[in-house]
Amino acid sequence: MQIAADRLHELAATILAAAGSSAGEAQKVAARLVDANLTGHDSHGVIRVPQYVGQVQDGTIVPNQQAEVVRETEAVTVLDGHFGYGQVVGEQAVQAAIDEARRHGIAMSALCSSAHLGRLGDWAEMAAAAGLASLHFVNAIGIPLRVVPHGGRDGRGTTNPIAMGIPVEGSGPVVLDFATSATAEGKVRVARNKGVAIPPDCLLDAEGRASTDPNDLYTDPPGTLLPFGGATGGHKGGALWLLVDLLAGGLTGGGCSRPPEGAARFSSSMLSIVIAPQAYGDAGAFGAEIRRYLEFVKSARPRTPGGEVLLPGEPERRARAERLASGIPIDPTTWEHIIASGAQVGLERADLEAMAG
Question: Is the pTM of this model over 0.90?
Answer without folding.
Answer: yes
